[in-house]
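Instructor's aside before we start: the two examples that follow are unrelated to each other. I chose them only because their records fit on one page, so don't look for a connection. First example below.
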Amino acid sequence: MRPLSMCFMLLTVMAWSSESFYHFKYRLLFFCLLAFAFTSIINFYAKNVGINYYNAVQIYNWGSSSGEFSGFTCHPMWMSAACGIGTIFFVYAMIVLYKRGHLQWTIFFGLVSLASLWTTMQGGSRSASGIALLCCLFLILVSFQSATQKRKILIPIILIGLLAIPTMVTDNEQFKKKQGGLGLYDDQGKTSRTDLWQARWDEFKSAPVFGIGFGVQKKGYENSTETGSGWLTALAQTGLIGFSLICFLVYKIKLPLNDLRTDSTAALFEAVMLFLLLHSFFEAYMFQIGWYMCLFFWLLLSVLDDYKTYDTMPDMETELFGESINDH
């Protein structure tokens, strides 16, 4: 069923489009982003009041817990990914309100962005936390044209970050557990993904041109839902042919810098896409059909592709913050 489900999703999202369907996909993305932002908020609350679904499930099933935090979500890594995107969304809101001259709201969303990044870190995913921070920086840099504008917003952000982020990292229990040894195989000096990456590479070497087939895994890993890397999974399961096609689709959605500076929605979508592409080196979004991030990945890619076809993006900024705008 997984191959059929994946084919159906790709045909629906990527193979057919119209302007009305493009707007429908945008609307779906819009509510997904709001959901990610809400996920950040409620899991920030969950951490501070001691709600941890993953911890409760582990204790119920095995009588003990690893101490990992997932808040209201089912798994820490998926919470971190959602909160990472939520952080980028809050930075987008901060930029829009800064451009409109609303200093108090700019400060408010700056603090919310920091809280969202802190929540991302609580899931223990260093990759999601670091890449979210990088993509927020990317979004700030492409949203302003002049060096003066960039300095005005970057200097206070960097100063606050230098003060807050080291504390956020050193106080993070999951980060501490991963220092020295990097994950599940601390005693072997491996990361938790080392064996998975090696398995994917062995699969690729066994069928480098066409791949071993969608959903197929090396013997000994057949029952594993985690493949370790979206890019390596694409390479192993679809070979150089499928991998090249994915790279071509990703290359197609690269937007001109001028579009990102003048269209805040396009800039947000590109920043989120950058997060997914980079984080896919560590998490297998692309082919994990059934997980929400798989649908979100291909949906976002298709919307950015349609944007180049229809040469316009629905205005999320106006929907969220109203008509008036006062660019600095």
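Example two begins here.
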Amino acid sequence: MLFLLIACVPSGPVPDGSDRWALAHDACAEASATCDAFLADDFGLDDTVPPNTVEAFRTLVVWDLGDESSGRDPRGDYDTEPFLDLLDEWSGDTTAARLYNYMSAAVDHVYVANGDSLADYRDGEMRLSILLSGGMWVTLTPVLVHEATHATWPGHDECDGRMCDKTWSGAYGAQASTAWLGGTVMHDAWLLEAAADAARHIED
């Protein structure tokens, strides 16, 4: 099931050359109180954020999403290029590192509260519903990417009465690309299913 996600118009983050991923990698090689504190500081995770959502943020540090040369789908089902191009300006030797640095700049505060949708993003503030924040962390991580990339790609379109993106240059494209890259590199069936689910919300 793909949850309904909405966003408001923000301003996009600007690369400053810093490499927060390198610091996160030192702090979060293993799940620990030190890692939790680092992530809480980096993303503004407040006391409403449950442990599995913290683990979903830690996944951004430890995941293998390949590199630029391995990030293209040879079959053409997943157009990862807009997502990889978005990350190109950010510091890091790998896709995962560049993604972490982008998200660290895009997200200032994360909290859990119910609202009109299961998640939304507004000017650095990411809200997750209680239901969504309690989901399986491995498939929650691409949803966090979806919300954060609304900093660059705000809003959605409507396709046949449902929320969608017209092209892969959108938050659903980022979500599908993240799940596909992780699922392909790590041979994870859950992530590949999540990628296909997100891709159904892309008209192109």
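The longest strand covers residues 109-112.
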